[in-house]
Amino acid sequence: MSYVVNGESGRKYLLRGNEAIARGALEAGISVAAGYPGTPSSEIIENLAEASKERPLYVEWSTNEKVALEVAAAASFAGLRSLCAMKQNGVNVASDFLLHLAITGTRGGMVLLPCDDPGSLSSANEGESRHFARLVEIPLLEPADFQEAKDILKWAYELSESIHNVVMVRSVTRLSHASGQVVLGELPRTEARAFFRHGENIMDTLNGAVVTLPVVPRHIQQQEKLKKVVSFFEDSPFNTYSGPPSPELLLITSSVCSLYSMEAVRILGLENRVGILKLGTTWPLPPKLLERHLALTDRILIVEEVISFLEDNVKILAAESAAKVGIKTFYGKSDGSIPSTGELNPDAVIKALMRILQIEYRDMPDDYAQKAGEIALIGAPGREMTFCPGCPHRASFWSIHNALEMDNRRGFVCGDIGCYSMAIFPTGFKTMKTQHAMGSGMGIASGFGKLGMFGMDQPILAVSGDSTFFHAVLPALVNAVHNKSDVILVVLDNGGTAMTGFQPHPGLAVDASGNEVPGIDIARVCEGIGAYVRTCDPFDLEETQRTLLEMMENRQGVRVLILKKACALSPERKNKRDYKMSVDETVCLGENCGCNRFCTRIFKCPGLIWNKEKGVATIDEAICTGCGVCTSICPAGAIKKEVA
Fold first, then answer.
1. What is the Cα–Cα distance from 119 to 107, expressed in whole angstroms?
2. Which of the chain's termini has less CB crowding within 10 Å, N or C?
3. What average pLDDT does the structure give for the chain?
4. pTM score, whole prediction
């Protein structure tokens, strides 16, 4: 049973941060939720999709984050409460529409909920979404713990409807994916009705057409909304102070850094020396609240992840209020007290407090530290990044690598983010040579493919996942076809958004809630655009490599090769084996073979291991998925497969 939907009001439950956020949205009475999967945000939409089976709620995984924001905005324009969730990279994708939405405003309450990833734990960067709130001039809220992650949602919708604009609520990995106790509130019982009012007066933002024109008057209205926000923020229940009335040091913080700060102060026993101002409303800052607390002391430490967003804005406010609060000494990222990259933790805050207050603290006994240092020198066994056993990407990149080598013109692969990003490492035979945002592989390859007029003769390949194809590759593919770019697109179709948990995409015949929907055929889309298209099974190495070589030889425009095989961890293939694999030890010569342990030294599927005692390769039956590919790569023919 899901507590997100069926938990009792007034009772306390252990919830993950994303579950608490989803429950908060339900308690706020949302009708529509849309997003694009991206860790650490994915579980918000997944929990709401489950809730849609029991409650009047429409939930979708959209094609990309911009479309998701547009879908949620449509609900708001029709008077419904809506939510749009994504990871930090997604706000970049959605920003084009977000800039316009902030100008036109909203009707029903609308929340944009990005989940940032300090430390880049599951991302290609640790970029921040907070700056977009200031850029587009909308309010920013940051819950500090799991209870606030739920409660702040209802307040955000009330705020949105008070100012008729979208409100950003920012989470981070350690809040979204950790767990804490949450007291649940009531779920609304009424069903909302949608109706879009579009009268003739375009200046009537609640009843007229929803348009950005005239821009300057709209912008003036938007800034008036922000002034109204400040008055709400001055009395927000999510801004709290704890500590002495006249602290030696004022610590200003937000989000999960509030928990790190409180723990650091407690560990050091500084409750009577350090005051903590925890802000849940971080843009625009409430000036009266800040002035009141800045006047308490001359020294200020600001603790936040990652970039100095809060620190910079507090300093600006302090400078403007210098006549009231006096001159302050600030500590934080600018002076190196707090690191400007990576995740924070209580230890980082402890170090800052020790430095500022000139106190000593030992976090572990000397003998324990010595023992820990000795163990660290020994180190854990090396473990490089690799594709899963039976991953179709390993077979795909093996064929791509070999085809490029056989072509012998120093061809290369342009890629982007996803599981297949690992092709920059040995697990993908170091085949990928560029890696940027979703869809950038095809866009960059499109550019390379026009450089033949300058003497470039190298084969140019782009790789894309099936979900990424719909998200961001299509415009680049259209561009390449239209401009007759000499490029090959390889679509690695593993049947879902595998990296983030197999969420469906438009290529599948199922939606976020499990309903049957039309699946969009990638091959037919590419043919319709005008590309030459072939489809292969990546586990058939010979056919895949032959097809790639033919495409490299044919330099006429855009060619698309779809390598179609379900992910080894997908529900379709999990715990199912096509073959029972074995190694004939009488045939395997190991290091004495001309291949010199080719299977375990180069191909490196984790299901193949080297038995040092016997001097032969063996199959790890616990993790081998029985894909059968290794049979094709053994030059001695020692690896055998039988139909399972």
1. 36
2. N
3. 93
4. 0.91
